[in-house]
Amino acid sequence: MQTNLKSQFLLDPSITYLNFGAFGACPRPIFEEYQRIQLELETEPSLFFTRTGPEYLKRSREALAAYINCNADDVVYTLNPSYAINTVAKNLKLNAGDEVLSTNIEYGALDRTWDYYCKKAGAKYVRQPIQLPLVSKEQIIDDFFKGLTDKTKVVFIGQITSATALILPVKEICEIAKAKGLMTIVDGAHVAGHIPLNLAELQADIYTGACHKWMCSPKGCSFLYVKKEFQKMLDPLVISWGYESLTPSHSQFLDYHQKQGTSDYSAFLTVPKAIQFLKENNWPAVATACRELSQKNYARFCELVGSKPLCPVTNEFLGQMCSIPIKTSAPEKLHDLLFDKYKIEIPVMMQNGSYFIRYTIQAFNSQQDLDHLYNSLKEIIVQGDLIEV
Q1: What residues are paired with 101 via a beta bridge?
Q2: Total number of domains constituting the chain
């Protein structure tokens, strides 16, 4: 994409890396800041954990809040979005017969989270089918709310889906849900740093996102935003020093979810540096170029494997990721062949019995990377048995 930016990433240059969406990738300046903070921690751990670290954490939370447009006291850091959603789901106090309305294209780990807690409560996790390919925003909303019943208590939905890489109209869905008196919980793991995120406009009751994906922070850095009216219902997963704190802050929410014993939270403290890196490198322009590259190749790949795009190829439904529907009886073999023989890191994903090859385009990618994927898939198709066309 941009030579100067490609050199900033630590990725193995021998690998064509088209899987940024899974775990992100940390640029050198941000990673060096991470190591600097870790060294400061180890140089004087007592000082760090009692004085400097908490102050750094406050500054980092304030920088994140400004970036995603929310109050800094309404957001806390977590290790990952799964941790955040577990915190929420465990505290919902669902009753027997209650329903949590979601879609059938959510992230698998979070499907499991909701299944677990709903089963414990005798409630039901409703994975409402969304017709693919998508036709319009109105179609998605109509499909989704067909799952609404008088037992629905909570709406849970991803803003950008994982396996299918689709942008869903969560703002409109939240507005409709709130008008019906429902709590709204949004999984935004793929959003911050990828497409614009404005929590004040979105108005979800609860929102979780990852900084270690598209914001380029080190791994294990995510956030949980909760509107003030819901904060006191959320006990932490770990009860520790924040409970009945000897030095309570102005916020039980912050105390409960930030004071949880000894851990290396250096990754949380890199967020100001990550935001600075994005600003210095004009990330809106970088993201636009990546999105254009991703989208202009999508139909070409679908045609190659005999399928169709999962949605209209526009910014309304797609960002820097595209999922190519494929027919394969050996997804793991296909993934391993692409990596072992062609040196391409790309996921082959399954959802609802269908398979998808999902490529993600970041600042270090180029048209040559996608050409290499195209030619490799073409060769695999010619050879025979891994992709049915």
Answers
A1: 126, 155
A2: 2
The DSSP result for 166-203, as a single string, is -B--HHHHHHHHHHTT-EEEEEETTTTTTS---HHHH-
Predicted confidence at residue 260, as pLDDT, reads 82
- The answer to whether residue 177 is domain-embedded is yes
Whether 69 and 174 map to the same domain: the answer is: yes
* Residue 256 within a domain: yes
Beta-carbon neighbour count of residue 316 at 10 Å? 12
Q: Residue 338: exposed, middle, or buried by beta-carbon count in 10 A (0-12, 13-18, 19+)?
A: buried
Helices (H), the chain: 3-6, 20-23, 28-43, 45-47, 53-68, 81-91, 108-121, 137-145, 170-179, 199-202, 228-231, 252-258, 271-280, 283-305, 331-340, 367-383
Which pTM was predicted? 0.97
Residues of the chain below pLDDT 50 = 1
Q: Amino acid identity of 352? A: N
Structural domain for 359, as ranges: 3-28+282-383
Q: Which residue type, as a one-letter code, is found at position 298?
A: Y
The pLDDT assigned to 4 comes to 80
